[in-house]
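Appendix B. Chain record.
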Amino acid sequence: MKEAATRMEAMRDTIFISHANPEDNEFTQWLSLQLSLQGYAVWSDVTKLIGGEDFWVDIESAIRDRTIKFLFVASRASKTKQGALNELAVALTVARQISIHDFIIPIRIDDLPFSEFSIQIHRLNGIDFHGNWAMGLAKLLKKLNEDTVPRDEAKFNASTIRSWWDANHLGEEIVKHEPEVLLSNWLPVEDLPSQVFLHTDKIKQNSRMGFRFPAHRIGSSTLSFATAEELGLTQVDSTQYATKDVLAGSIQDAPLNGEQCQFALLRVLRVSWDRAMSDAGLALHEMASKKRCRYFNRTHFKGKEFVPFENSGFKGRRTLIGKLKENQWHYGLSAEVRIDPFLLLALYPHVLATTNGSTLLSSAAKLHAARRSACKDWWNAEWRDRQLACLQWLANKNDGKSILVRLSSSLSFDVPITPIQFRSPLSYSEESLKRDEDPPEDPAFEEATLNQVEGP
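Structure tokens predicted for this chain:
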């Protein structure tokens, strides 16, 4: 038994730092780096194991099997922090089972009186860091040396810390601890007609027939907001169902099951959007994924024209086509209809290239190269503003605030052009990411960024 205990203790090589998170994070990170610089294997939840494998899947097992010194950062915060107290409880159990001298070392970092230390560590000899971290570190290093805590200076050293720092903190000058409102690529789909038709054939009909209005056919049934007469269907039984029930997939006792009806309705909405883009005159490009991208060409603009917009706190004007050496670039959109987390239209931007304003480049490789060249210096603001300009251009054909999508000769719905917003607790400096020494790949590319006003 004694030999087994000795072998178990021989496996211990790591200093574990337990602390209140996030209150004592700054001190804990500093102490972890200082100890690692001296060649000690150190773990804390703000650094993990610097320069080593991350074996701390199970904190309790790590304390029981790998920890040689358990440093408890004693502060007013950790005194009541349940996570730190739970780790301390495990360490106290281990201390009673092993023969390591001073397995637990309390570290005082604020004005918490020693007399108010947690009752579990009240009688343990602590090291005072309060008011002078350097002096406290010197005392701790002396204690670790006296207790012959193992070091591995080949593995834990300045180079290791530098690599860890670069991997974890190199971008801190970019991240700003300021909230930011973010615009998504989601547009809400609301105010659909309350009822939708399911037309079922009485006799076998041509399943490949085209429809004047958006519809989707599965087997012998066709789902649409349009009537049978509007679709040119004869010899059918037509039944209306609540749109909300079809969207929920809860239709029962119908020729199609709930999942099929839901799929068909989403397909109808996607087709209706695509037709609205076609009605607006946008050209069609079917991508390799079979998604349909609608894009602007020279029929929409005469020369270098800007589309002004003011939406969601952002104001400016952008071009949606431009020159690219002897070619031209064109902004476009594809779209998907989703029901999760709610009914919405998800937009995806694309940039295509033509030789003469209307004929797309002949291969996918050429399109890809042109897209990389045209968009090389487009950052978030450029992509965001072009989406807003595109939506404003489409809305100008309706009421200036929404895009009209027709479902039948008498039914339609409006898609508001204000994207759904999210609030991030952090933001970043886009200018810090841009490299002035890196010129545009294509000097002939015409960028058009004017009068941009950032939102809240």
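Further analysis of this model is presented in Appendix C.
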